[in-house]
């Protein structure tokens, strides 16, 4: 019998005392099994000595060569240059930091074994600061037997130590000390290696391994682990979904009279896409189980109207509905919009944000609990524990990409009032996002949700024309702005985040506003930023909406949801600092009316390669889905999905972009496991998601 590695704490490792054990476990490495799942980031090949004559720039290699001469030179920097040869060629070793002892070691004729990166130098190839050792003439040092793993590290633990810990754990690895939770039938069907073989190979790959594949994370052993991780992820979301479907929820139907009154208020026809999504929602609401539906729709596709109609189902059925927005400005705007739509129907709309305090707040909470309010609009302040609804049946979460999965889960319980007769009913949930997620990712990220797409914009929109201009030509841009304002247009001027510091951010926006006002004396320029009081912000937004302000200078607070159809110019300063999704969101503030709109990306040269690529994408397309795909290519899924999005980001082995071709197989494998080996579900989830209890439990 061998002891399960998960029950062997790291304190049993050689060279690990209580303090280090604590450090390791803070880093997520508590036992031997954790260490074995702590996989190398990459590998070095120190298994053989390369002749200098065979090298080319970019290679990381071991050479063994004899010192020809070593000299300290003083050019731009004082450095030690050591010329070496091995019979096949010459190369230079370059050191910027060195001791006298080091220099003395490098006497002509001394033999050095070096490991480093080869790069072109002024006199042929060189290595900068190679690791090296002096080889005694009568001594032949062995080369490494396998590729050298480079592990991810935490502060205070160096590479050699981490390597030694993983080596020690590896010695204890056998098929019984870590169980393979993937059943043999499944391994065979998908052609996957065993867990045991995979881990052994990845910690100590032999030199004949496919090195290109392993460096890129495409080796079958890596693929197998990624497969297992994605599978665990998927199973946990499916389990969540399954649980939701077993819950009960209010049956909601719409009152046709109320509906036609509402449509009259609305003043426009729904697009086909909007109508289709509403019918999908309606079907969910009639099932008696909680709806959990994600609506993806590009900026300006009309998600608010869809939300409002869904809410009408709740209200028609004598229930309450709530909508939560990620920022106060957006919530405020929804509040105004909903008052306009619903009050003429005799319905009561309430408002709550973090800034609402004291008596005002008490009063709102009171009427909410009394059931006097039909529709509640607010920020996440809505979901504090003391906000209690009388009969909440539908929750809408707008711009979901701003909310983490935790909030998604916290909401499940909202509206379940202790002791009330509805205690067993959960509210329906409609989640809306303007950040389209590529289909493959959506499948993985939202396996617990149903997804609807509004893939059509309301009629009469003209696409926004986008140009990128260097900020050296700021004057020309301001001049153009002057003309636009004279033609009766309104403009946004967005200052992007400089530091992670709201104070400085606000200051920069203030400076920009002053500069603009000075350059445009005939134009009314105003400022809105995150440090302003909500009342001030609201007043500025209202004045802009009312046309009293022509140029609105803003920090990225206006990013989501703001709707001023007459605004047709968007200037974004330093757009290279923003991701594509954010740029697309910002640009979506214009192009909402019938006039043609412009977006000026006022960049600061020189642009990085990524910066250039992003601005190029923005100029080429207005399609949010295309942009999402590009964003994924340029930045990778972690950034695209937002750090707290789903835990998909913190995956240990899998990489959604690299491994997306597996997602279809993973889905099938999950179904197979559920049908044939349900005993493995819990084990897999615990192994891979054990640290993110939110997922594992629920
Ligand atoms: P988003 O999907 O970005 O939240 P909004 O709901 O704010 O978009 O809608 C953007 C604008 O389009 C609003 O002014 C809204 O009134 C308008 N709108 C929505 N649906 C339609 C439609 N079917 N026809 C015409 N205008 C519409
Ligand atoms: Mg919106």
Automatic annotation (TrEMBL):
Plays a critical role in recombination and DNA repair. Helps process Holliday junction intermediates to mature products by catalyzing branch migration. Has replication fork regression activity, unwinds stalled or blocked replication forks to make a HJ that can be resolved. Has a DNA unwinding activity characteristic of a DNA helicase with 3'-5' polarity. Gene3D superfamilies: Nucleic acid-binding proteins, P-loop containing nucleotide triphosphate hydrolases. Residues 284-454 form the Helicase ATP-binding domain. This is ATP-dependent DNA helicase RecG. GO terms for molecular function: helicase activity. It catalyses: ATP + H2O = ADP + phosphate + H(+); Couples ATP hydrolysis with the unwinding of duplex DNA by translocating in the 3'-5' direction. NCBIfam families: PRK10917.1-1 (NF008163), PRK10917.1-3 (NF008165), PRK10917.1-4 (NF008166), PRK10917.2-2 (NF008168), recG (TIGR00643). It is an enzyme of class 5 (isomerase). It comes from the Bacteria. The keyword Chloroplast does not apply. InterPro entries: ATP-dep_DNA_helicase_RecG (IPR004609), DEAD/DEAH_box_helicase_dom (IPR011545), Helicase_ATP-bd (IPR014001), Helicase_C-like (IPR001650), NA-bd_OB-fold (IPR012340), P-loop_NTPase (IPR027417), RecG/Mfd (IPR047112), RecG_dom3_C (IPR045562).
């Amino acid at each position: 019998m061998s002891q399960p590695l998960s029950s062997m704490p790291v304190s049993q490792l050689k060279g690990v005392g209580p303090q280090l054990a604590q450090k390791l476990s803070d880093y997520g490495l508590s036992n031997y099994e954790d260490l074995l799942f702590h996989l190398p980031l990459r590998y070095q090949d120190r298994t053989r000595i390369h002749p200098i004559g065979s090298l080319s720039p970019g290679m990381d290699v071991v050479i063994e060569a004899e010192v020809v001469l070593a000299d300290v030179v003083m050019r731009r920097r004082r450095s030690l240059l050591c010329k070496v040869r091995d019979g096949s060629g010459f190369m230079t070793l370059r050191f910027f930091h060195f001791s006298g002892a080091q220099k003395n070691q490098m006497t002509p004729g001394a033999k050095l074994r070096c490991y480093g990166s080869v790069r072109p130098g002024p006199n042929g190839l060189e290595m900068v600061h190679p690791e090296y050792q002096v080889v005694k003439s009568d001594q032949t040092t062995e080369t490494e037997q396998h590729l050298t793993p480079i592990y991810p590290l935490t502060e205070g633990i160096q590479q050699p130590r981490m390597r030694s810990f993983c080596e020690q754990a590896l010695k204890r690895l056998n098929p019984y000390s870590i169980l393979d939770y993937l059943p043999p039938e499944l391994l065979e069907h998908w052609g996957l290696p065993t867990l045991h073989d995979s881990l052994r190979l990845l910690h100590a790959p032999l030199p004949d391994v496919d090195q290109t594949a392993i460096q890129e994370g495409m080796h079958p052993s890596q693929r197998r682990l990624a497969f297992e991780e994605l599978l665990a992820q998927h199973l946990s979301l499916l389990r969540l979904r399954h649980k939701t479907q077993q819950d009960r929820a209010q049956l909601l139907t719409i009152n046709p009279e109320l509906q036609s009154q509402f449509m009259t208020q609305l003043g426009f026809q729904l697009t086909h896409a909007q109508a289709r999504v509403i019918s999908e929602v309606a079907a969910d609401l009639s099932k008696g189980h909680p709806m959990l539906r994600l609506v993806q729709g590009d900026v300006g596709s009309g998600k608010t109207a869809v939300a409002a109609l869904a809410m009408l189902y709740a209200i028609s059925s004598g229930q309450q509905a709530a909508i939560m927005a990620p920022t106060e400005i957006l919530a405020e705007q929804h509040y105004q919009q909903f008052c306009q739509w619903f009050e003429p129907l005799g319905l009561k709309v309430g408002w709550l944000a973090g800034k609402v305090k004291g008596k005002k707040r008490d009063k709102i909470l009171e009427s909410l609990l009394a059931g006097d309010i039909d529709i509640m609009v607010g920020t996440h302040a809505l979901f504090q524990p003391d906000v209690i609804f009388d009969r909440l049946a539908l929750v809408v979460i707008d711009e979901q990409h701003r909310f983490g999965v935790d909030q998604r889960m916290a909401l499940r319980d909202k509206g379940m009032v202790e002791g009330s007769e509805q205690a067993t009913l959960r509210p329906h949930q409609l989640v809306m996002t303007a950040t389209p997620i590529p289909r493959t990712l959506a499948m993985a990220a939202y396996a617990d949700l149903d997804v609807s797409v509004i893939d059509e914009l309301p009629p009469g929109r003209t696409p926004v024309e986008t140009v990128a201009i260097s900020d050296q030509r700021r004057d020309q841009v301001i001049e153009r702005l002057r003309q636009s304002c004279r033609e009766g247009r309104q403009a946004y001027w967005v200052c992007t985040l400089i530091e992670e510091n709201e104070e400085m951010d606000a200051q920069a926006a203030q400076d920009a506003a002053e500069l603009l006002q000075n350059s445009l004396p005939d134009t009314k320029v105003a400022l809105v930023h995150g440090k302003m009081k909500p009342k001030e912000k609201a007043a500025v937004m209202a004045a802009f909406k009312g046309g009293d302000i022509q140029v609105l200078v803003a920090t990225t607070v206006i990013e989501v949801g703001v709707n001023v159809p007459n605004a047709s110019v968007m200037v974004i300063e330093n757009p290279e600092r923003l991701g594509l999704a954010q740029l697309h969101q910002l640009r979506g503030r214009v192009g909402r009316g019938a006039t043609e709109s412009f977006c000026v990306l006022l960049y600061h040269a020189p642009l990085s390669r990524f910066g250039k690529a992003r601005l190029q994408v923005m100029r080429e397309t207005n399609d949010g889905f295309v942009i999402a795909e590009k964003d994924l290519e340029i930045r990778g899924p972690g950034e695209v999905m937002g750090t707290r999005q789903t835990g998909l980001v913190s995956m240990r082995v899998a990489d959604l972009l690299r491994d997306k071709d597996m997602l279809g197989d993973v889905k099938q494998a999950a179904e197979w496991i559920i049908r044939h080996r349900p005993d493995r579900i819990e084990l897999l989830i615990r192994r891979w998601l054990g640290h993110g209890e939110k997922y594992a439990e629920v």
